[in-house]
């Protein structure tokens, strides 16, 4: 044990009592006999002969967990002699857990309602289960070898006689319970569909990772892939599944709407795939990564790292991405059917109206929910899901601004009413523009303004030249006209709520076009 200066303390100085190696060997043999028997049985049969069933995985998980706890109790991970055994036991527990999830998915796959994806998920799951079975055998062999090197007497350890085959009769029990009577299920359904869409927007790492070529797998750690990110994402999909089972399962709404069981199936299978991905990422980061691994299994590996990485990226991440896309389409269809129509009146964006950024943000909100939303401006309807259509509304908005401003200019007589010389008219126009800016009726984006040489040469006097020049300055982006113009969005209330949140923060911009932070409810727009 070291202090801050690096001085090594003896066991006597720290008050710790050390256990004799021979005594610890006997303890490991006695307490780990069942685990060693399981390892002996796995290695005796070989790759291809072992079916990694839920029963076998569960037993391995139990026994390796107990052995890991015992090793930790005696500080094996901090001991040069025993730390490798501790790492191997942890790896066995890790892959036993992965195998149990794979076996569960394979067994339950016929009961999941899933949309078809391009690759054969059933065949891929069986292939990965066989691969992980081979990994478990390799780790079991490494466990026996390490125990032998440490002096643990395993000569008379025989394979366990237990049969872990799952020979279950086919069929299911009859579904003869009545539908549950609950509160307004439709509210929960729309919440779940909305939450799935939000999760889909926050799961870009799955889509990105699914496209990574094998030679770049290792470069994905720790960004975008990490055990922490995968675990947090998996927890949220698990929560989605749990909410469904609590509020929607066995209700009349579920009976009438088959898409709901598909939504549950997608949330569930993604959750299980993320559990597998989390454990694989944990193994890589903890044990074999050049940056964060402890090196014990790098020097003398017991697992084919390439096969592990392929299972993580080409299976768990790739199929998660596929089912994520399917669940996204399902959620959008559900929300369209459960849409509650509404109207929302909001101000026009203060900086240049519906130019590129506000139009794109509104359209992305609409696309996120997959709903049809329209924007009403002076009785003319625009497709709120199309940035180009919203951008086209600026023609009407700018015309209305100019008409309003012309009335304001005409209401206040110019300082030089009778001046007809071009220079005098130009001076009068500039004076009016600056006066309007001082009154907050226009906002200047450039100073000094680049005035047109046409001032004073146009037909009409100061009023006509002012209106024409302001229109040109607005078109060239030198100024804009402040008004209280509003538009009305028509469509699903959930979409309108997000549009309202966007409008409250200036559509993501301040009055001079600088970006502002979007609220948490619109976090999906930041990606």
TrEMBL record:
InterPro entries: HPr-like_sf. This is Helicase XPB/Ssl2 N-terminal domain-containing protein. It comes from Candidatus Accumulibacter contiguus.
